[in-house]
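Async update (no meeting this week)

Hi team, since we skipped the sync, here's where things stand on the single-chain job. The sequence we agreed to prioritize is pasted below, unchanged from the tracker. I ran it this morning and attached the output directly underneath so nobody has to dig for it. Comments welcome in thread, and please keep replies under the output.
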Amino acid sequence: MQKVIGVECWADYYFFGRLLNDSKIIRKEKNKNEVLKSITERAKGSFSVGVVDHDKKELTVYLKETEIEGMVTIGEYIHVSKFAGSIQFVIELKPVEFEIWINEFLKTEGKSVADFGYESLKEFIEESKSIYEVLLSKPRFIKLMDFIFEHYKNSDNHIRKIKLILEYLLKNRYQADINELINV
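Output:
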């Protein structure tokens, strides 16, 4: 299968590959701008999804300069935009970045990054920016991810929602209706 989902960092690559049980469809880009370019420029005429942090002004500027056909916000943690006349979508993780997005899930489970051996959220953020091989060699990162994948299915939360959103987009690709995402 084609690499149709672009992400910003190796932690995202690992997470979304595992969430969807298929890392072959995930494409790790250099940064947010490259994710956005891969959606709008390199994927012309093809289905593509970018998953990015909602943490920099450039995303807002980029989206304002691009014609958007539809936008939906699902809860307080997920915002999806569809580019006009295309089958390209960008999913923004809110409130700020992937690691904080993950931490918000941990809070719903009565946990924090400290429960997995991190001294602080800052330390978790720094470690998650490691290259892939280093990241996978970190037992506390893997333990934290294992916890997420063992527990996200148990309640209505943003991780479960994003899985359903991505599965809907992957299944419906060219017929995907952004307004249907609210109902997934």
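Quick observations from my side:
Strands lie at 5-7, 26-28, 48-53, 68-74, 78-83, 88-93.
The CA atoms of residues 56 and 96 lie 8 Å apart.
Reply here if anything looks off.
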